[in-house]
# Entry
Amino acid sequence: MEAATAATAAMVWFRKGLRVHDNPALDAARRCGAGRLYPVFVLDPRYLRPDPAAASPGSARAGVARVRFLLESLGDLDARLRRLGSRLLLLRARDDVADAVCAALKDWNIGKLCFESDTEPYALARDKKVTDFAMASGIEVFTPVSHTLFDPAEIINKNGGRPPLTYQSFIAIAGEPPEPVMEEYSELPPVGDTGEYELLPVPTVEELGYGDLSQEEIPPFRGGETEALRRMKESLQDKEWVAKFEKPKGDPSAFLKPATTVLSPYLKFGCLSSRYFYHCIQDVYRSVRNYTKPPVSLTGQLLWRDFFYTVSFGTPNFDQMKGNKICKQIPWSENEELFVAWRDGRTGYPWIDAIMIQLRKWGWMHHLARHSVACFLTRGDLFIHWEKGRDVFERLLIDSDWSINNGNWLWLSCSSFFYQNLLPYYIWEEI
# Structure
């Protein structure tokens, strides 16, 4: 198999995992002996197609702040690959991303396909289609787990085939995460012939067709691996702050300098490896005398992230109330007028409205602010279905993450996990 692979080309398919450091898929493609390497990202119309009917600029599934963060991350990834003698091959799918990948696998005579595994339902269906095609075509496929600290399937298997439903039981099973793959290398195999394929430059948000954005505020958080590593280094330099980090403490109204690391969007897009971040925090802990422990510590937040990934992966219909066996069936109100007032920051409650306006403009807010508006919408004041609020967060947050967003709305609405918790302050991955 080694000789056969060495005679062909390899593809590394980026989706999340938009980084060079600790990227086992990229590392495997680099090492397989192929003479040519095709680093590919496919623009997905499902997420990027403009929607004039949306409540704010962007697509039906992504606000302009998150789209901008993605494009910045792609531009940074391309720049980092170019420094290694490669480049990002940016393709646009007409409709289905899987079809675009399968066509490229065939046309470029790929012998090995490497991509980071993904546990979201949409991704599982997309990836199965590509994997089935690749296997039927005699293409070797390698899909390492590297978006999370642990493999959710392994955790579920260790727990008797069921996901652990409490943080404590998850911690007891998980143990220590694997070490990151941090080998330094100075070059990648050259890119192969792409034939007649149209290779796109990274577009701007305006070029995607979202209309006039001149009045839209540009968020202060720039996407990409370079910024992720800089922000992480800056945060961890203050060892005392790291050692004393404790949720729920922190100022949710801090504006110019947020009270947290704001690394969650970089983890969401995989610009920063969660394993690398975890082990860098451990290095800080080893250099101080005392430090906070999970669940309130900085590493505790990364473990919360994995907890929700595991539960969501092992729970059918995790993203809805009906058919979700861990979700309470609650007769939520259907007052559309109150929901729109909440969404648009027009409730008349200054704190709630300010948070929702910040969400729309920046795509981010402090975790306690998220708690405030989520509780206000659901069990606290308006008694409106958590799925409605989830959809708003999923579209607008730059760190919107399917597993964590659904898990937190289930928790904050007292629909699952801990029904009588008045302040579930450990959660919501806004690290």
Remarks:
- The two ends are 43 Å apart (CA to CA).
